[in-house]
Amino acid sequence: MQKLVVIGAGMASGRVLEHLRDTAPDAFEITLFNAEPRGNYNRIMLSPVLSGEKSYEEIVTHDDGWYGAGKVNCRFGEKVISIDRDRKVVVGEKGEVSYDKLIIGTGSSPFIIPLPGHDKPGVVAYRDLEDTNAMIEAAGKPGSRAVVIGGGLLGLEAAAGLRLRGMDVTVLHIMGHLMERQLDEAAGYLLKKDLEKRGIDVLLRASTKEIRGRDRVEDVLLEDGTVLPADIVVMAVGIRPSVQLAKDAGLDCGRAIIVDAQMQTSDPAIYAVGECVEFDGNIFGLVAPLYDQAKVLARSLLGEVDAFAMRELSTKLKVTGCDLFSAGDFAEGEGREDIVFRDPARGVYKRLVIEEDRLVGAVMYGDTGDGNWYFGLIKDGTDVSAMRETLIFGPAYQGGASADPLAAVAALPDDAEICGCNGVCKGDIVSAIEAGAGDLGAIRATTKASASCGTCTGLVEQVLAVTLGDDFQMPAAQPVCGCTDLTHEDVRRLIKAQELKSQPAVWQELGWKTPNGCHVCRPAVNFYLLADWPLDYQDDPQSRFVNERNHANIQKDGTYSVMPRMWGGMTNAQELRAIADAADKYNAVVKVTGGQRIDLLGIKKEDLPAIWSDMNDAGMVSGHAYTKGLRTVKTCVGSDWCRFGTQDSTGLGIILEKRLWGSWTPHKVKLGVSGCPRNCAEATCKDVGIICVDSGYQIGVGGAAGMDVKEVERLHDARTEEETIEWTVAFVQLYREHAKYLDRAYKWIAKVGLDWVRDTLADDAERAALVERFDISQSVYQKDPWAERASPEAARHFKPLADLTLEAAE
Amino acid sequence: MELALDRPVKTFVEVTEVWVPKGDTLVLAEGYYGTLTAFEEASRQTAFAKGEGLPGKAWAEARPVVLKGFDGSYFKRIEAAREAGLTSAVAIPVFAGKELKAVLVVLCGDDENRTGAIEVWAEKDGVLMLDDGYYGAAKHFEWVSQHTQFPRGQGLPGGVWSAETPILMRDLGSGYRFVRAESAGKAGLTTGLGLPVPVPGGKSFVLTLLSALGTPIARRFEIWDARRAGRGEAVLIDGICAREGPLWTGEAEPERKVSAWQGLVGRALGTGVPVVESGVPGLSAGYDTMTALPIHRAGEVSHIVAWYC
Ligand SMILES: Cc1cc2nc3c(=O)[nH]c(=O)nc-3n(C[C@H](O)[C@H](O)[C@H](O)COP(=O)(O)OP(=O)(O)OC[C@H]3O[C@@H](n4cnc5c(N)ncnc54)[C@H](O)[C@@H]3O)c2cc1C
């Protein structure tokens, strides 16, 4: 009998042994080494063992009886130290064994980030039963806390298990969303939400600086200064193939042990299988392909012909109740088309990626029952053009589903749920209609259907249409864009009501039909989010118009204009000298603008950081001539100089500009302050125009002098400068909080009515609250974009990403 | 495998009934009574209006109800129960949205030697507190449980609550070295099945069945996932059996599935109503009785839990 030695009783080598047992039980005399003090078990099921949902005994794949029956000589708990290929012996810790054939199946070892403190007691990896038991042990102490570094598959399974065991758990993930290699942002958002529902804290973009403690782990320090107390730190950041043994033996290795399609290494007597191998440049981390390898290896050993081939992989997460599935490639790309389905009430997200009539990727969350069916379509490269329309609904809907939405709604039974949020069935809505509710508003008021997340609005309207027939007029409310049926007003209302604080939250909870919006909705949603949640939301520059991203106005010839701020239109000799120098240095054309500023035109893009730096050095900041934000405050010379001036209009203009600059608004905001009714600052055609009079200040709002010319309407007569400032700031904040993106103030006022604006602002408490919210927002957003980008270091990075989907001109 | 392999002297649950709405009342659809024929007879002649008796109360209040000691209570079948030696009962309403599909009632006899627990946990102030439970002889465990609360995601009740999914835990007495776990270990409680009990109005309830070695609530537990959108199919996702060992399937093995109407689990899937069967040939692994309880979510059966004795 030939002597077969196997190094490592892992999931892959275990499969080889099973194949040999099944097909040629007497072919080899087998010796099995394992560094772990036990035989083969189902490693992937360690997670449910950790959580208490499986027992270790249940996951043992080969027990003593199995090894005994095959006369496998088991050397468990004994590490192999070296391989002597010349003598064909394997050297274990307790002695040598000779081989005719050798299988290396040493798997991987967890990667440990060499952070300060990584070697303290209490820091564990997640690979074997010892690690699992160490975690169970740590969870045994009431009130104990765990920090898991790594928001990938293993880290999250560890976190969920520890939580179920009763620990307080924080997951630290360096990237912007969880499991970023397997999930897109939307699915990552839902996963995070699901984990948070379990009481697990998830910190994204969290970078660990140090693990601290005297004799053992006590806390974890993050780069941003956060300190997280911890009784145990689980590091689950990746794996490295275990190949030292093979390298020392002189076998060909790349990132892992190089094998051919028969799983043979560079030594014909030695085979390798599992995570320790490299095949055709690939290394492995999931079991499915390892099982294929095992079968091929067993057949090769027996002299049969077989060849290993790479195949598509799919991922699931073994956290009970977190249903996710991903397969294939779902990166965005040219020629790729997305089909997206969302059901916010059930927390469902599905996205299919199609390229050249083939399904190439699938990500789903919340409803993964059809995952394997999609996986099959991906693997087989099936032409899906014929089922394109119903593909997202899965195999149950293939062939024969009705395409007419009204017919589908008509066919729904009375107990079919229409509004998931408020549990309203079709029958309830029909009853309400029969009792006289004739439009969406009335249905909302009587049944609450579509009153919460609003995503069923279309369905409710269809029920109205089916029930009322010709009596019902489908409303013509304009949705934001093709990504959603909701209007801007709905989106704004729901962002507030549902406390949606990130773009993925908006896409998911409001049922967006695209993976992450388009060039129309993204700038709007980005604005709504930053206006409503200045402290929680992180501004997304990629969701901005090109001018806002480049912090300069792009001109006809591709050059840029640069315009420094001149507070209230005042400047001085030193500023003018700096502007003149810059004009020379960067070869600029100089224009005095209608808003009392000086514009430098014709600046090359690569010169932008340098000219900004020069302007900053002269004490000037960006004039924001390119933003949906405060542009200019135009003033007249006022009582200081003018014979007619009644108040210090220049001073007030400067105060207002210093208070308001840097704030983002739905559209541009221009102010004017005139010192007397002669109105030299042309204040009456501004978004906010203030006319000083003997008795105080007349605040007008909603003026315009563009395509539309409009005179301001009087909002309020203020007695003091202070009162004027308070009203102006409160007005701007009200506009920021309520207007549709890209509505100038006058358009917004026309929609909500000046009376409402005035009544709202007349309420002292409300006005004070608006001012407070404005100031909070300014604490985040009132910063000079030039200064941030003018340093040479930042300038090097200042290469705006070319994102064609967002390249929108005004 | 930690489940008892030998036949238990007496099972923890003696009677299991399914009451279904018919007009304004609940009538008996099926039940398992063992040798308690007189109680069975009395039950068959009873119907409950909404709010009446134990099943009627679970319906009217839209919540699971535990009743311990029938004398002087609203329990309707006091006489027959006393004669049958039954002293406690738990009623679990099965709702699909607002619609009551059935009320599952389990009745237990008082016994100094029978250990186990049927618990109802309810959300209060952001944590799960014990609503009530029946524990047989596990008095210390009962006391500990009354003084335990579960935050989201923690322990069997907290895990079920946040995952909105049934969970089957092994080794209740080891690993969790909290007071309740310690006490569970001492009481010999090994296996725990927890499941959400969805009710209209959105209040959260979790039911747990904790099984002891000598007097198991069941000797085989199964959890079926039925969320295959519109496909009328359920997949066995977890289970353990004293006779067959673990019932879950590994990565490379084919799934165990049933279609609607196929077998008893399929019947629960098809009707959305609990199934109680006994003495029929072909029950899994040769057991005598089985109970299958469907759980509805978003208007459809999402899971089925089944237990066998
Ligand atoms: C907690 C966890 C969850 C997972 N979940 C999934 C999942 O859901 N899906 C999935 O596809 N994959 C999952 N994986 C990955 C999967 O377990 C691995 O892909 C698989 O185990 C690799 O098999 P292997 O045989 O190559 O190595 P292993 O199973 O790691 O076995 C290698 C064995 O070799 C032994 N060994 C190493 N060096 C020596 C030596 N010098 N002498 C003697 N013995 C030695 C080791 O002790 C070990 O027992 C998970 C992994 C973990 C840890």
UniProtKB/TrEMBL annotation, chain A:
Known cofactor(s): siroheme; [2Fe-2S] cluster; FAD; [4Fe-4S] cluster
Residues binding [4Fe-4S] cluster, per UniProt: C636, C642, C676, C680
Record-linked CDD domains: NirB_Fer2_BFD-like_1 (cd19943), NirB_Fer2_BFD-like_2 (cd19944)
InterPro entries: BFD-like_2Fe2S-bd_dom, BFD-like_2Fe2S-bd_dom_sf, FAD/NAD-bd_sf, FAD/NAD-binding_dom, FAD/NAD-linked_Rdtase_dimer_sf, NasD-like, NiRdtase/SiRdtase_haem-b_fer, Nit/Sulf_reduc_fer-like_dom_sf
GO MF, one example: 2 iron, 2 sulfur cluster binding
Residue ranges annotated for the BFD-like [2Fe-2S]-binding domain, each copy included: 418-465, 480-529
Keyword Nucleus: no
Domain NADH-rubredoxin oxidoreductase C-terminal per the UniProt entry, residue ranges: 314-381
Keywords: 2Fe-2S, 4Fe-4S, FAD, Flavoprotein, Heme, Iron, Iron-sulfur, Metal-binding, Nitrate assimilation, Oxidoreductase
Pfam family, one: Rubredoxin_C
Residues in Nitrite/sulphite reductase 4Fe-4S domain copies: 628-764
Residue span, Nitrite/Sulfite reductase ferredoxin-like domain: 555-616
Record keyword NADP present: no
Lineage: superkingdom: Bacteria
Binding site for siroheme: C680
Residues annotated as domain FAD/NAD(P)-binding: 3-277
Cofactor note: Binds 1 siroheme per subunit. Binds 1 [4Fe-4S] cluster per subunit.
Protein family: Belongs to the nitrite and sulfite reductase 4Fe-4S domain family.
Protein name: Assimilatory nitrite reductase (NAD(P)H) large subunit
Organism of provenance: Poseidonocella pacifica
UniProtKB/TrEMBL annotation, chain B:
Limits of the GAF domain: 33-112
SUPFAM superfamilies: GAF domain-like
Pfam families xrefs: GAF_2 (PF13185)
Protein name stated in the entry: GAF domain-containing protein
